[in-house]
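Need a sequence for this fold. Nothing fancy.
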């Protein structure tokens, strides 16, 4: 079980102090329990394997410090564990930073911890993820996940309130390399009763992860998506979670996010859409959710064509209401080559601001099962060709419970 360390407010006086206690737990791990307090973070708190970080709910607030931007002094190349800057004022070892340029995003961005600072150079604990060319205006920015794990297992975050202090950030960290709560290359992770708001990026994100559980959380008012399972992440449960007022989707299935169950969740008032499903996002289940008042479709099955099309997903017993206020063809949009989907026993209501269909099935979709859906205030109820609709229930496996060992073999257990 490991040791439990209950820190006082005096002891938990900085992110560095909390990190020292986490690092001091050693291989056995344990629990670090924070007191009721408000603390400004100048770096992310990094979990080690076997560690739980816990707080006192609304009474433990971790807030991101105002960010700064540091331009690189010129070209620097892939894999190097240091970087030349025009100046380094305010940087010190242990701080978490992001590096990127103005052209390449995604996994070309680097998330790293500073290891040393000398003569306008800084050392990094990981190699650069890309070449950074001078003409692409590369920079280092003090943007970071508030809580994160890289290549860890058996970790948990619970009973915390996180404030991304978005208005004080000159830039954020990209979705593939960070989020307010972020994991990469990790397994057996739990996030419970975490409330977060206003991050300059994603709310909760994870890449290349397996065996996770996110319950009773609330992620709101972020510059990106509320929740972002990505890059082949498999075998994860979301239950009783909220995403509201995010500038992208409430919930964004990224590339090859499979065997994920989302139940009893609420996705309201987000900009792009409520829930977005796309490239190779298959065998997923959305059940007993409320999706309301999003500017785009309530659920969007994105425009992905074979061989990376969406298939084998189920949406059931959801209330999908007042979406497509600005964009989208229906409360549920199914595009491109999607097939073998089950949409059943849902309640769909149109938006007052803009007329849309209840369910739109694009002309290239096939074998979509519609059954028991109650559609009100939409016109027409369904747009679909006969070829799009299934004549019998598709025989598919889906959701967390259908995940078997073979479904995880694309994931490597390495530190990334």
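Here you go.
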């Amino acid at each position: 079980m490991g040791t439990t360390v209950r820190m006082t407010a005096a002891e938990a006086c900085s992110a560095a102090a909390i990190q020292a206690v986490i690092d001091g737990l050693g291989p056995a791990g344990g629990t670090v329990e924070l007191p009721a307090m408000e603390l400004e973070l100048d770096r992310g708190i990094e979990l080690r394997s076997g560690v739980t970080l816990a707080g006192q709910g609304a009474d433990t607030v971790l807030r991101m410090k105002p960010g700064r931007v540091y331009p690189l002094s010129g070209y620097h190349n892939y894999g190097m564990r240091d970087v030349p800057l025009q100046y380094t004022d305010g940087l010190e070892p242990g701080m978490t930073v992001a590096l990127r340029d103005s052209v390449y995003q995604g996994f070309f961005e680097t998330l790293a911890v500073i290891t040393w600072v000398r003569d306008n150079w800084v050392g990094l604990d990981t190699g650069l993820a890309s070449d950074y060319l001078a003409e692409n205006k590369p920079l280092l920015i003090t943007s970071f996940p508030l809580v994160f794990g890289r290549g860890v297992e058996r970790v948990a975050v619970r009973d915390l309130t996180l404030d991304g202090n978005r208005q004080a950030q000159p830039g954020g960290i990209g979705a593939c390399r960070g989020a307010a709560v972020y994991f990469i290359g990790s397994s057996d992770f739990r996030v419970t009763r975490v409330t977060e708001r206003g991050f300059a990026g994603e709310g909760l994100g994870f890449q290349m992860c397996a065996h996770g559980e996110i319950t009773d959380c609330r992620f709101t008012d972020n510059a990106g998506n509320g929740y972002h399972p990505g890059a082949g992440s498999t075998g994860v449960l979301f239950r009783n979670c909220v995403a509201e007022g995010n500038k992208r989707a409430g919930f964004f299935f990224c590339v090859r996010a499979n065997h994920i169950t989302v139940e009893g969740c609420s996705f309201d008032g987000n900009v792009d859409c409520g829930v977005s499903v796309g490239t190779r996002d298959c065998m997923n289940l959305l059940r007993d959710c409320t999706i309301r008042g999003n500017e785009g479709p309530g659920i969007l099955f994105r425009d992905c064509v074979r061989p990376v099309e969406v298939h084998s997903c189920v949406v059931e017993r959801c209330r999908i209401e007042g979406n497509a206020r600005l964009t989208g063809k229906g409360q549920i949009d199914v595009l491109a080559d999607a097939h073998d989907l089950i949409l059943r026993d849902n309640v769909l209501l149109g938006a007052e601001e803009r007329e849309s269909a209840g369910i739109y099935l694009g002309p290239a979709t096939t074998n979509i099962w519609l059954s028991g859906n109650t559609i009100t205030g939409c016109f027409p109820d369904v747009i679909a060709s006969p070829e799009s609709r299934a004549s019998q229930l598709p025989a598919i496996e889906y959701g967390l419970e259908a995940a078997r060992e073979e479904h995880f073999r694309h994931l490597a257990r390495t530190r990334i």
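For context: The chain has two domains: 3-64+144-400, 69-141.
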